[in-house]
TrEMBL record:
Protein name: STEAP family member 4
Co-factor(s): heme b; FAD
Topological category with respect to the lipid bilayer: Multi-pass membrane protein
Gene from which the chain derives: LOC127366687
Pfam families according to UniProt: F420_oxidored (PF03807), Ferric_reduct (PF01794)
A GO molecular-function descriptor: cupric reductase (NADH) activity
GO biological process: copper ion import; iron ion transport
GO cellular component: endosome membrane; plasma membrane
Known catalytic reactions: 2 Cu(+) + NADP(+) + H(+) = 2 Cu(2+) + NADPH; 2 Fe(2+) + NADP(+) + H(+) = 2 Fe(3+) + NADPH
Xref: Gene3D superfamilies: NAD(P)-binding Rossmann-like Domain
Record domain Pyrroline-5-carboxylate reductase catalytic N-terminal: where: 20-104
Keyword terms, alphabetized: Copper, Endosome, FAD, Flavoprotein, Ion transport, Iron, Iron transport, Membrane, Metal-binding, Oxidoreductase, Transmembrane, Transmembrane helix, Transport
Length: 455
């Protein structure tokens, strides 16, 4: 500040940092607008500085050479296919921070990451990979509307620091992923398609298809062949309302099976310091998705069950009166009660798996809900299914064409899981497992290391 001739103080604003953007396309324009709003000065480098489209107000535009010379940081908002024009700018780009924001349409199209290719093209520049996981849209609308996370990587710590400062000023959370060798991973982020959902979705689809055809044959085809009666209308509601709970219960028990398998594996090996096989690792990692899909199927089951009283087929049959049977009343009410309790807990499990909720829980609270209440849910739902079967397990007439009904098949996995869990809960087994999980090993570790030295 200085004293002006009139005697009042005027403050000369500190000179704003000038940043350069190559490319006046969608991304370049959105980025420039955000930078200008944050208080930076922006200069565009373009192939056609005099005829490019509308640019954010306040930005300058010039040739690539002139723009590069005027700024220390250059955002390269051009597709990888067009990087070759940079080769003519090698001298202007020397020592500059070159930010690569590019993505590809598919994975593995090029042998090396775009940012690594850029670094090879301009060895004298400090290439930083950043911003590629944002969209032009989210840049324009501000981070409150879209992702706040910016990933970055690069070989020069100072260059990265400059980009971190800019991104932070723009309102993003920055996560440094290390050297430029991480660029490939960052470039693959926007191309991911629900990777952790793939296995659970395939499983859900496979189980649904299997049980649909299994029940179609047992219910509809069997009745048609053996009794010459067409009950195909049952496909829409009755069959669906058998398939969905079956798939739901199997998927729920598959959430808890890998934990039990892992416990037995640790007991068998007598140590926790050996890696689990890959399939078990992958299975453990998708438990949340398995559980959420199971919850989805359970919700469908609830909705289908709610419409039972208004179905034409049911109202038609209700007119046939019979004697009141108290045992039957107990059975049916217990069956519904178990189902309702199971579903209530199911919902709690689903809600507590939401990141905002689970982040607010302590480790003990989370494991209380997901493990203790989870097993209780599995128990209620399994018991619900046993009550549905009641005495039908022993009556041969229910084994049409020598096949067991669908709900009997679906009881296998949950029953096994609960039986194994009971074994683990036995005090002697529980004690060994706890010891192993706190680092105790059955075999003498010294002897083991000697053995591994010999082989
Ligand atoms: P765009 O709209 O097609 O703009 C690309 C710009 O590159 C053009 O406007 C042009 O600017 C310049 N250009 C085109 N051909 C060139 C050549 N042969 N030589 C030199 N410059 C050339 O693309 P965009 O959507 O802005 O994407 C730009 C980069 O951002 C890409 O690498 C993309 O992967 C990345 N990205 C985009 C988004 C998004 O949401 N759009 C999101 C993440 C990452 P001039 O005419 O001024 O030279």
């Amino acid at each position: 500040s200085f004293m002006s001739s009139t005697g009042t103080f005027t403050y000369s604003a500190p000179e704003q940092e000038l940043l350069c953007i190559f490319g006046t396309g969608d991304f370049g324009r959105s980025l420039g607008q955000r930078l200008l709003q944050t208080g930076y000065r922006v200069v565009y480098g373009s192939r056609r500085p005099h005829s490019c489209g509308p640019l954010p107000q306040g930005a300058q535009v010039m040739s690539h050479e002139a723009a590069a010379q005027s700024a220390g940081v250059i955002f390269l908002c051009v597709h990888r296919e067009n990087y070759d024009f940079l080769e003519t700018l090698v001298t202007q780009l020397k020592g500059k921070v070159l930010v690569d924001v590019s993505n590809n349409l598919k994975k593995n199209v090029y042998p090396e990451a775009n940012a690594e290719y850029l670094q090879r093209l301009i060895p004298g520049a400090h290439v930083v990979k950043a911003f590629n996981t944002l969209s032009a849209w989210s840049l324009q609308n501000g981070p409150s509307d879209a992702s706040r996370q910016v990933y970055l990587c690069g070989n020069s710590a100072e260059a990265k620091q400059q980009v971190v400062e800019t991104a932070t000023k723009l309102g993003f959370n920055v996560l440094d992923r290390g050297t430029l060798s991480a660029a490939r991973e960052l470039e693959d982020f926007p191309l991911q398609l629900f990777p952790e959902w793939r296995l659970p979705l395939r499983l859900a689809f496979g189980l649904t298809a299997f049980f649909f055809f299994y029940l179609l044959i047992r219910d509809v085809v069997y009745t048609y062949v053996e009794q010459d009666k067409d009950i195909s209308f049952r496909i829409m509601v009755s069959l669906a309302n058998k398939v969905f709970p079956i798939v739901s219960l199997i998927m729920l028990s598959l959430c808890y099976l890998p934990g039990v398998v892992a416990a037995f594996l640790q007991l068998y090996r007598g140590t926790k310091y050996k890696r689990f096989p890959d399939w078990l690792d992958r299975w453990m990692l998708c438990r949340k998705q398995l559980g959420l899909l199971a919850l989805g199927f359970a919700s469908l089951h609830v909705l289908y069950t709610l419409i039972i009283p208004i179905r034409y087929y049911v109202r038609f049959r209700i007119n046939q009166t019979s004697v009141f049977d108290t045992t039957m009343a107990w059975r049916v009410d217990s069956y519904y009660a178990m189902g309702i309790l199971g579903f209530g807990l199911y919902l709690l499990l689903g809600i507590s798996s939401l990141p905002s909720v689970s982040n607010a829980l302590s480790w003990r609270e989370f494991s209380f809900i997901q493990s203790k209440l989870g097993y209780l849910t599995l128990f209620f739902c399994t018991f619900h299914t046993y009550l549905y079967g009641w005495d039908k397990f022993l009556r041969p007439s229910y084994y049409k064409w020598y096949t067991p009904p669908g709900y009997m098949l679906c009881l296998v996995v949950p029953s096994v899981v609960m039986a194994l869990k009971l074994v683990i809960l036995l005090p002697c087994v529980d004690r060994s497992l706890t010891r192993i999980r706190r680092g105790w090993e059955r075999t003498d570790p010294e002897g083991d290391s000697k053995k591994s030295l010999l082989t």
